[in-house]
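User: Fold this; tokens only.

Assistant: Input:
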Amino acid sequence: MKKYIITAALSLFSILSLSAQSKKDAQVSKLYQNYIAIKSALASDDADKTSKAATEFIKTASAIDLKVVSEGNLNVLRKDASAISDARNVAAQRETFLNLSDNMIALTKQFKLSDKPVYVQYCPMADGSWLSNEKQIVNPYYGKSMLSCGSVKSEIK
């Protein structure tokens, strides 16, 4: 009887751990989707849309459990997103996007964000990387003027 109770308790603990893990991933996955919205808005040279996407990113980052992502990491992400949200021109938004991207790349290596591969892409002209959910290059640093400038540097599965 004791053996069955221990087995049942361990099974319940495993199920709870798995659901907690998927929740962690879901919270950070939503942050990644907000990041992709910022990247897409920058690629389309739209400062207003970029600002709105950054505001959504901040809301999502503020809702993430501090047991999942450290407060220090979230503060850095929110600071970058706030600067992007407050900036009214694409050039200023792109400058801060360099930092946001570096921090999101580091976060992506810690969490499974998507069932699909996440691509780390790089633009030599901007000397900056960014994340993408597709292999095709859509450059957020130069937008329409050099939309396909860059290459896939790595793939995070």
